[in-house]
């Protein structure tokens, strides 16, 4: 091991490398703002700023029963949302596991499986009567599809490429709503799909039903992304028909911010992670913030510190050297530990990293490192929210609401407070007092159902 003083310096340098002072946050926000503008003006910009073709916001008075389908990972959900007016709603949801065999191969098999689940759901929850009593004899459905699509209208979008273990090559370039509708027809399921929705847009619209001052939906989960309300005149690349409201909900895809490496202060650990990822130089902002990556950044920093003799008596273990072996959820456990002996921290290190014995100093150093990495994620999330609020020119005098969902936001201790504190640093206390950052509940399902309701009303 190196002499203590040298190890101390290495440790403090590592900690410092994760700090983002206020001025740096502002600089990043300024660049992000200009990247939003760039994305609104042309296709192919790093931040894609995708028009959702949804524009109407709920009034809180919408009523009726609408279905939603939420496809984005291993599970997919079918929901029936009963809008009761006054911002109140009930959700009944069933989860289905998509068999691996349906995730790859011909798209018809995948969409047939999904249609089968919808058929079963309609049967289980006795929704045929609801369908029969509607004007069209059908149930109306919104489809949350968390894969990149080139949206062509509120109910049309072609899949750009698969991710997350899905690979049905014949679906790429096809309209996923068409494929779903055809599969439903094959089973004579009386459901009409009227909206194709990104989960961020769903989160925005769902929260606006309860809180009409909502202007932004944000996801801090496996990845990160946000959607907001934009003036159509600002979407200079838009070639579609004008909307009655003169507004458009934009899915920013902000996770791609600064893939050109201009302003984000990357540490050596961020660079290593990016280099070994299967999407190098892409989603760089997302890699500093989201659940998929925070644990791995921490693991890399830990390895560096052990090698420098600053931790664990300089001894490495196999899990410590295993890519993605340190989960972001462990960071939550570590941060939640306020016991004097940091027992839970020791437990995580023993159970998950095979570091059997640690000193109190080891555990304190690990906790401070984790805090630093978690805090950086919260501060950068605040930068994104701030830049997007600036783009909207809000808040002026009226309060606004930002709706947030995702496990990092929900489960990471202190994340919410740190994000709000960083917003106060960026905006000043008076302006920040007009911004309420709130948890969105059940956004992706409810939002899709609401957008289906709004689309339905327009016809
Ligand atoms: P998704 O974003 O895919 O819809 P989630 O919002 O549940 O799903 O996010 C899942 C991500 O959250 C995973 O990357 C995981 O690492 C992370 N995660 C899960 N549990 C926790 C936790 N307790 N604290 C922090 N992050 C967590």
TrEMBL record:
Keyword Zinc-finger annotated: no
Pathway listed: Carbohydrate degradation; glycolysis; D-glyceraldehyde 3-phosphate and glycerone phosphate from D-glucose: step 1/4; Carbohydrate metabolism; hexose metabolism
Cited CDD domains: ASKHA_NBD_HK_fungi
Top-level taxon of origin: Eukaryota
Residues annotated as domain Hexokinase N-terminal: 13-209
GO CC terms, sorted: cytosol; mitochondrion
Pfam families linked to this entry: Hexokinase_1, Hexokinase_2
Name used for this protein in its record: Phosphotransferase
The reaction(s) this protein catalyses: D-fructose + ATP = D-fructose 6-phosphate + ADP + H(+); a D-hexose + ATP = a D-hexose 6-phosphate + ADP + H(+)
GO molecular function: ATP binding; D-glucose binding; fructokinase activity; glucokinase activity
Enzyme Commission number, as recorded: 2.7.1.-
Keyword terms: ATP-binding, Glycolysis, Kinase, Nucleotide-binding, Transferase
Gene3D superfamilies: 3.30.420.40, 3.40.367.20
SUPFAM superfamilies reported for this sequence: Actin-like ATPase domain
Organism: Allomyces macrogynus (strain ATCC 38327)
Residues covered by the Hexokinase C-terminal domain: 216-454
One of the GO BP terms on file: glucose metabolic process
Keyword ATP-binding: yes
Family note: Belongs to the hexokinase family.
